[in-house]
Amino acid sequence: MLRRCDKGESIIRQGQTWRCGLLVDSGVLRMVTSSADGRVLAAVLLHPGDLFLSHSMFDDGAAPASLEAESPSTVYIWDESTLTRLVKSNQEALWQAAHPSESDAGVQVTQSTGWPSSRSPGASRGCCWTCSAGRGR
Description:
With 137 residues, the protein is an alpha+beta fold. 20% of the residues lie in helices and 30% in strands. It is built from four helices and eight strands; from the N terminus they run E-E-E-E-E-E-H-E-E-H-H-H. The chain has helices at 56-59, 80-89, 91-98, 100-104, and strands spanning 2-5, 10-12, 20-26, 29-34, 40-46, 51-53, 66-69, 73-79. The strands form two sheets. A four-stranded antiparallel β-sheet has the order 1-8-3-6. Strand 4 and strand 5 form a beta hairpin. The relative contact order is 0.18. Residues 105-137 have low confidence and may be disordered.
């Protein structure tokens, strides 16, 4: 679904269960975590091309942050069932999108699991940048 957002429009509110994924097409989104007394604890900006997947899809937990349009923005939003279907039918494309440097190097994805044969879950290097020791964004 394509959604146009005005500046300041809320997409997700902290504490809400939001079982969707989002891709920023244009504009800038602001992700903000606030304390109980309303102080902003952290803010992250999402730009065109940035993908946001809510952890609520995996654990039914509440969103730890709010997401709002920092400027007039256009986003694509996919519900959980659509994302699940896309991931199951395009595992290699998903891996390549998440690991562009390795995709360029010709990493082979196993047919049975969708994981690259040299980077299966539990491998010493981790399955992605978040799992690899000493790596981060």
